[in-house]
Design brief:
single chain, 13 helices
Length: 336
């Protein structure tokens, strides 16, 4: 059975998300400037430091972004008042049963957000992203579904990272070092895509889509290396913002839920034989989201499913292999 939060909690979540998104565009130091690269446009805060003109990335061009900037010019509420209001919304969400984060994970997410990781294209994937669909889809998760992994996976497009001409500040490696994370040696000397906490089991991994052979690639905007993976380009295309109900809220970015669900079907079949528990978890998350989306967003789910099937026989085979073990989920997709 799919359980939902109250209408009040759903409204509070979207108020929190709206406030966090607005806050990210309040601290303009100069004049917003639109720069086009090919068919896409990108907004920057353009300002002078001495004789140099510097740019801070704000987001991809859209009517929504332009309208929000116009509205912010008329909003004079002081910073502390806005922070207190967001903290009130977080308390309301926690009282309504929304998931939170432990202090260590919450502080790390807040520090990465403040450094610009998600503003610069970083997208939270994996179980941390799954937990955040609670707010996006207004779903109350069960005790079994709320088990929190110690791994934090962040994915980004290499080409976007190169194109932005902006960088996280402070650097991501410094943020991780402040939380006692050290790079895990890789097969390429001097390059690392995984960072492990020296006291504990927490692990942060950076990923990027593979267009060819899998290996390590640089993400200049984040100042780290990332492991390339096939099928990841499908997952992190057109990500959405999400709010973590921690302290006065933390703004991050996650994949679209319909893409996450279909991608989990692919990943479940890709796992090695000794990863049966993880494969079962992948299928459970996919089944849960597909059930919710088939009920509330069937058009989005159908489009994501058709997109994945159109990408070739290997994609179709992996999806079919997972669905063969999930007859109820297969029936939902077939009925869209």
């Amino acid at each position: 059975m799919l359980r939902t939060h109250s209408a009040l909690a759903h409204a509070a979540y979207h108020d929190l998300l709206r406030s966090l998104r607005d806050e990210g565009w309040r601290d303009l130091r100069g004049t917003p400037a639109l720069i086009r690269r090919g068919a896409r446009g990108y907004w920057y805060d353009s300002f002078r430091v001495g004789t140099q003109v510097r740019k801070r990335y704000l987001g991809e061009d859209s009517p929504d972004l332009a309208a929000r900037m116009a509205a912010l010019r008329d909003d004079r509420a002081p910073l502390e008042q806005r922070r207190r209001e967001r903290a009130r919304l977080v308390r309301l969400l926690r009282a309504e049963g929304f998931l939170g984060l432990d202090p260590t994970s919450g502080s790390l997410m807040a520090a990465l957000s403040a450094a610009g990781v998600f503003r610069l294209g970083g997208t939270v994937v994996g179980t941390h992203a799954f937990r955040l669909y609670e707010g996006e889809l207004n779903l109350a998760l069960s005790l079994e579904q709320t088990a929190q992994t110690d791994d934090l996976d962040i994915a980004s497009f290499e080409r976007l990272s190169l194109a932005l001409e902006d960088a996280a500040a402070p650097p991501v490696q410094q943020v991780l070092a402040d939380f006692d994370f050290a790079p895990v040696p890789s097969l390429e000397p001097g390059r690392a895509w995984r960072w492990r906490q020296t006291q504990g089991n927490a692990l942060v991994e950076f990923l990027t889509p593979a267009f060819g052979e899998e290996g390590l690639r640089d993400l200049p905007a984040l100042g780290v290396q990332a492991q390339t993976l096939h099928h990841l380009n499908y997952l992190i295309a057109d990500p959405i913002p999400a709010a973590i109900p921690y302290r006065s809220g933390v703004l991050v970015q996650i994949p679209r839920p319909e893409r996450f669900a279909i991608h989990k079907l692919i990943v479940a079949d890709r796992r090695r034989a000794d990863d049966r528990l993880k494969s079962a978890k992948d299928r459970a998350q996919a089944a849960f989201l597909i059930a919710a989306l088939a009920r509330d967003r069937p058009e989005d789910l159908a489009e994501a499913h058709e997109d994945a099937l159109s990408r070739g026989p290997r994609w179709r085979d992996r999806i079919a292999a997972s669905l063969a073990r999930m007859p109820d989920t297969a029936a939902l997709l077939a009925g869209l």
